[in-house]
Structures are given as structure tokens and as C-alpha cells.
Write a structure and sequence with these properties.
By secondary structure, the chain is an alpha/beta fold. The protein has one domain: 3-Layer(aba) Sandwich (Alkaline Phosphatase, subunit A), CATH 3.40.720. It is built from 12 helices and 12 strands. A hairpin with a 5-residue loop joins strand 3 and strand 4. Helix 2 packs across helix 10 and helix 6 packs antiparallel against helix 7. The N terminus is likely disordered.
Length: about 375
């Protein structure tokens, strides 16, 4: 089992916290090319005016609702990965997420990339808490035959449940998983997976009940799902249970309509929750070993549709942490109309598997080749690592 993260003299193990922005975050309105006339011309409704943005360079700025992100960037703690994607990007939510979760753009794969990471870290499956997902059901990234990952909806509620209620809750979670993944990989594989891992998942959830009892903090998180999820991550991480991979999701980013108010609210929730989470870790001397990856399944189209933006490509991701070498990585996709993909999309400028490879090799100390399905160019986003 991996060492805990307390200050008892043991070497700290690197930890990865993944935050999935479900629905397709609008990267152009998160990191805004505010000096580009084509941006303002293409987005008469959702575009953010130059006098409202939060500049980080002479040409790029954060959305005004993401002030904590601007602060992290200015402090050198955030790497902005521009133009992330892959060839022939899918516009289907289900398929696009499937590709990000399995690293397989050309066929339906049966193993999640983070499940393979768990197998590397804990090959004999000794610790069902090596990976913990906050939320109902289990993300495809953490699912593979023979690999156990624990998911939990609400740490506080879980600790108060009777054993009968716990089993009912787990049954619901497993049913969610079954319904989510049977269309992709077939019922036989899903049922086989559940048969092999269901009991380990129950055992892992039981082990988590100690985390809330041990936790004290002066940080006051907001009352929204991503803040609650990250507070739970902090409580589990600081309990020293050997968790190396955490998974969380923030939903609502599919802005075909009502993008202006909704995106602003979501970016406020997200950026503040991550800021509070990092403050909480620092208070517990538990920030040094944590890197956060924020990703989404695709970007949005360049032009707005009069109420929001439709599915596109060439999105963005973020790496955040005390050991991150902040700055801009890869190239912001060209906004010149001649360069638009399909005449309406941003082109990707870096493959998402490059970022996975970077995290695996440089942060987690794991050979990425088998996990991501090949060799991909890596970036250098760390000041120092623990491996």
C-alpha cells in the first residue's frame, strides 16, 4: 500500500486530482483572445468585452468570473494547455468522453487510462482506495476488468448510513455504471467487471468512513457540487489512506443556450473551489504532492448561435499545483478563418495524450506508452517532482 501523506517522515507519493468539466467547456470564453477582432465579430452575444476581461498576457485573458484562476496563473501555479484535442475530434458527448477516458480515438476500448495507472501502482489490488471517484457511478477512466476503484457520492451522508442503506447506495452506483457503459462495451463485459470489483468497491467505501472524523479545517467551501467534491478529496487525502488518484466532475458546460449567465456561474464555482481546495491542502501541509488536471471533452465553435455555442474542438486544459511551472503551453489555435476546421472550429494544436504522457512520466513516475497507446511529445510543466 502506498505511504500516507502525513508528516511522519515517510516519503510523500505524488497524487493526481482530475476535475472533469462535463458538457464541453467553452475554452475561447475561459482563456479569451481579447485583442482579436475575429473573436468579438464571431461572438456578438457571448463574447466578453475587452474592458471586462482579466488579462494574463498582452493578448490573452481569463473570463471575469475566473479571478482565482488569474491569481493562480500570476503566481506561477497554473499551466494553461492551449488547443488540446485529437485528430477527427468527435462532437458526440458520449464518444468524446469515451476517447478521453480510454485514450483510444479509433475503436471502442475496454480499459480506462486511470484504471491502468491503478494497476501499475497497486498490481495486486491490495488497496481499494488507490483511486477514489467523488460522485455517483464510476467514470470510464477508472474502469477495467480486475481493477478496483472506489466511488462515493457524499462522504458525510455515507458515514451516517446503516449497512443496509450503504448496500442500497452501492447497488444504485453500480446500476448507474452498468447503464452508462453497456452501450459502449456490451453487457457481458460490464457484468464481468462488476462481478470482479463490486465487493472491493464496498470494502473501499467502508474504509473511507474514517476520513470525516479525522478532518479539521478553517477553510469554508461554498455550497455547490464541485466545492463539496473537492472538500471530500481534501478530507480523504489528508487522512493518509494511500489514495493516489482522485476523480471529480463539474457538470453543466453544454452551453447551446443561456451561456452568458451559466458559464459565469460555473467558472466562479470551479475556480473558487479549486482555490479553497489548495488553501485547505496547504493548511494540512498536503499540497506539495498534489497536481490537479482540469479537462473537458471538447471546445465550442468559434461563432455563437445567438444564445450559446455549439459543440466544437480545439479546447483547453489546466494543470495546477505548487510544483507546476505556470505559463502557456502549446499554441492558441489560429482564429484566421482560413485555418478554421470544418469552416467553424478551432484546430487542436496538441494531442491530449501528450498531456497524459507528461503527467504519467514526469509526475507519477509511470511509463506512459502502454497506458496512452503510443509515444507522444511531452511538455515540461513542472518546477520539481517527487519521482
Amino acid at each position: 500500500m502506498a505511504a500516507g501523506n502525513g508528516t511522519n517522515g515517510k516519503k510523500k507519493d505524488p497524487v493526481l486530482v482530475v476535475v472533469q468539466l462535463s458538457g464541453g467547456n467553452d475554452f475561447m470564453n475561459t482563456v479569451i483572445p481579447f485583442t482579436e477582432g475575429i473573436y468579438h465579430d464571431s461572438r456578438p452575444l457571448v463574447g466578453i468585452s475587452e474592458d471586462r476581461v482579466l488579462p494574463i498576457t498582452d493578448t490573452l485573458a481569463f473570463h471575469p468570473s475566473a479571478a482565482p484562476f488569474r491569481d493562480m496563473f500570476n503566481a506561477g501555479d497554473m499551466a494553461v494547455i492551449q488547443g488540446i484535442g485529437y485528430e477527427n475530434s468527435s462532437r458526440s458527448h458520449f464518444r468524446a468522453m469515451d476517447i478521453w477516458h480510454t485514450c483510444e480515438p479509433n475503436k471502442i476500448a475496454t480499459e480506462g487510462w486511470l484504471a491502468k495507472v491503478v494497476r501499475e501502482i497497486d498490481p495486486r489490488g491490495e488497496n481499494p482506495l488507490t483511486a477514489v471517484s467523488m460522485g455517483r457511478g464510476l467514470p470510464r477512466a477508472l474502469a477495467a476488468p480486475g481493477v478496483a476503484a472506489t466511488s462515493i457520492g457524499d462522504l458525510d451522508k455515507y458515514g451516517l448510513m446503516s449497512s443496509v442503506q450503504v448496500k442500497e447506495e452501492r447497488a444504485k452506483d453500480l446500476d448507474i455504471f452498468k447503464r452508462m457503459y453497456t452501450p459502449a462495451v456490451g453487457s457481458g463485459l460490464v457484468m464481468d467487471y462488476l462481478a470482479h470489483t463490486g465487493q472491493d468497491v464496498l470494502k473501499g467505501a467502508d474504509m473511507l468512513s474514517v476520513a470525516p472524523r479525522q478532518y479539521k479545517s478553517t477553510v469554508e467551501y461554498a455550497n455547490n457540487p464541485i466545492a463539496k467534491a473537492l472538500r471530500d478529496v481534501a478530507r480523504i487525502h489528508t487522512a493518509g489512506l494511500g489514495t493516489r488518484v482522485f476523480y471529480t466532475a463539474h457538470g453543466g458546460y453544454d452551453h447551446h443556450a443561456q451561456e452568458v449567465p451559466t458559464h459565469a456561474r460555473l467558472l466562479t464555482e470551479l475556480s473558487q473551489a479549486i482555490a479553497d481546495f489548495r488553501a485547505d491542502l496547504r493548511e494540512h501541509n498536503a499540497e506539495d504532492e498534489v497536481v490537479i488536471l482540469v479537462f473537458t471533452e471538447f471546445g465550442r465553435r468559434i461563432k455563437d448561435n445567438g444564445s450559446g455555442t455549439d459543440h466544437g474542438s480545439g479546447g483547453g486544459a489546466f494543470l495546477i499545483g505548487d510544483n507546476v511551472k505556470g505559463g502557456l503551453y502549446s499554441e492558441y489555435p489560429s482564429l484566421a478563418p482560413a485555418d478554421w476546421l470544418y469552416g467553424e472550429d478551432l484546430r487542436h494544436t496538441i494531442d491530449f495524450r501528450s498531456i497524459y504522457s507528461t503527467l504519467l512520466k514526469q509526475w507519477m513516475g509511470i511509463d506512459p506508452h502502454e497506458i496512452v497507446g503510443g509515444d507522444f511529445e511531452q511538455i515540461r510543466p513542472f518546477e520539481k517532482t517527487l519521482v
